[in-house]
Design goal:
The chain is of the alpha/beta class. The protein is built from 17 helices and 14 strands.
């Protein structure tokens, strides 16, 4: 890991050419901090949320913790620029935000000595051997919250068992999303302390954005189908499906929101090369709440922080990542917005949520993108069936809440135990 540091710096420079956020405070990644540590106050709670989705899930946990510990100091770490940008809204005066330390003993040691957290929370999957060992040696309880582990990730961890097993075993506690996640994590030696559910069910999509999206859809005057959080290759699949199925497609307004912002220009060029008229969200002049966005074959959602608006605009969403065999994306936010989902064959990253949504009638499983386009267009053409699916989506999202309270209570218990020593 130490020898790989120059490669990391080179990678950050390249990423920074597309996303400037990666060039911000680079030395923090190596445990060097010009800023002051956390301000004095209540317990110092460190939460590591690597990217955008984990940071949003961390937000509901932070809110639950602040209710229980009003004077807490939050230390928030990230691995991606989108996660760091999103995390800024969670900070209060006296809190701190920094990059996750690169996983060397030196960087981890400097990080822990500088911020001196009372407890650490890793969100979902982020288990790094030196980070876990450093916390153990420093006496910092470290938990894995909202934990998930797919069969694919389990096989990868087993291949690196000499590193993975000691790291998982050295965690203070692991709180899994599902029984299957708990079983796989326990198989690696993790101290699974409970199955608390998925924090993302406790997230509340922005109601103002949702209503703005719905009004835009009504002003458009035709159904809207969204390809949400698309991954590389899926836009090309969609273009091919669009060309192969002409019936009914002209009656639908298509909306594509790529998963990664660095691909916005690439996707726009791909769509235009396919002969499609594209209207980019970033190029829309101020559109009033009762005005329709510009007419085009495809709207391109090239903005950050507006997924609630996009799901509000959509009648149905095609689930990105599930067609490119990358394990799918989180469908819970779509369901919470009352937007049913059509998903492809690959949802191993969110296996339980996908299965539950399908069983509830909030999601529909298909074999490929062509079938997905057909199912979505037939669904929006049937008002009765679409209404039932919307209701099922909302019911599914509300039925699985409570993980934030369970996780916050367990963290408070660990803090009390540490204080009592």
């Amino acid at each position: 890991m130490t020898l790989a540091q120059p490669l990391l710096r080179r990678k950050l420079r390249r990423r920074g050419e597309v996303e400037a956020g990666y060039l911000e405070s680079v030395e923090e990644r190596f445990g060097r901090y010009p800023a002051e540590p956390l301000a004095p106050g209540g317990p110092r709670i460190w939460i590591h949320a690597v990217s955008l989705g984990e940071t949003r899930a961390a937000g509901v946990l932070v809110a639950a913790l602040r209710q229980r510990i009003p004077g807490m100091r939050l230390l928030l770490t990230h691995g991606t620029a989108t996660g760091r940008a999103e995390g800024g809204v969670l900070l209060l005066p006296g809190d701190a935000q920094t990059w996750q330390p690169w996983d060397t003993a030196g960087a981890v040691g400097r990080f822990l000595a500088h911020f001196r957290p009372d407890i650490g929370v890793l969100m979902e999957t982020e288990v790094w051997p030196n980070l876990v060992a450093g916390c153990r040696d420093a006496g910092v309880p470290l938990v894995l919250a909202n934990a998930r582990l797919s069969d694919k990730s389990l096989r990868g961890a087993e291949r690196l068992g000499v590193l993975a097993r000691p790291a998982f075993a050295a965690l203070t506690a692991v709180w899994a999303q599902s029984d299957d996640d708990a079983r796989r994590l326990a198989g690696l030696g993790a101290p699974v302390g409970g199955v608390f559910g998925n924090l993302k069910f406790d997230m509340t999509p922005d109601p103002v954005q949702q209503e703005a999206g719905r009004r835009w859809r009504r002003a458009t005057g035709r159904p809207v189908v969204l390809l949400a959080s698309s991954r590389e290759g899926e836009e090309a699949m969609w273009i091919e499906a669009f060309r192969s199925r002409s019936a009914g497609l002209d009656d639908v307004q298509w909306l594509i929101v790529p998963r990664h912002p660095q691909r916005f220009d690439e996707v726009a060029a791909l769509l235009e090369a396919g002969g499609l008229a594209v209207s980019r969200r970033s190029g829309w002049a101020p559109v009033g709440p009762d005005d329709a966005p510009p007419r085009a074959d495809v709207w391109l959602g090239d903005s950050l922080g507006e997924m609630a608006r996009y799901y509000g605009m959509a009648d149905v969403a095609l689930l990105g990542g599930s067609f490119a065999m990358t394990g799918g994306q989180n469908l819970i936010e779509a369901a919470a917005c009352g937007c049913p989902v059509v998903m492809g064959p690959s949802t191993f990253n969110f296996a339980e949520a996908s299965a539950l949504a399908e069983a509830a009638g909030a999601a529909f499983r298909v074999a490929d993108m062509t079938e997905a386009v057909g199912v979505a267009t037939s669904l929006v053409a049937d008002a009765g069936r679409l209404g039932i699916a919307r209701g099922a989506a909302l019911s599914f999202a509300s039925a699985h809440r409570g993980a934030a309270a369970r996780t916050a209570d367990a963290l408070c218990a660990l803090l009390a135990k540490k204080t009592a020593r």
